Amino acid sequence: MSESQPGPASPTRWRRIFWMLASAFVLTLLGKALLPELTSFGQERIALVRVEGPILNSQPAAGEIKTFGEDPLVKAIVLRIDSPGGGVASSQEIYNAVKRVREQHKKPVVVSMGTVAASGGYYIAVAADRILANPGTLTGSIGVIMQMANLEELLEKIGVRNVVIKSGRYKDVGSPFRAMGEEDRELLQSVMDDAHRQFIEAVAEGRSLDIADVEVLADGRIFTGQQAKDVLLIDEIGDLQDAIKLAADMSGIKYPPKVIEPSRRFSFREFLTNRFFGKTSALPLQTGVHLLYLMAF
Question: Whole-prediction pTM value?
Answer without folding.
Answer: 0.80
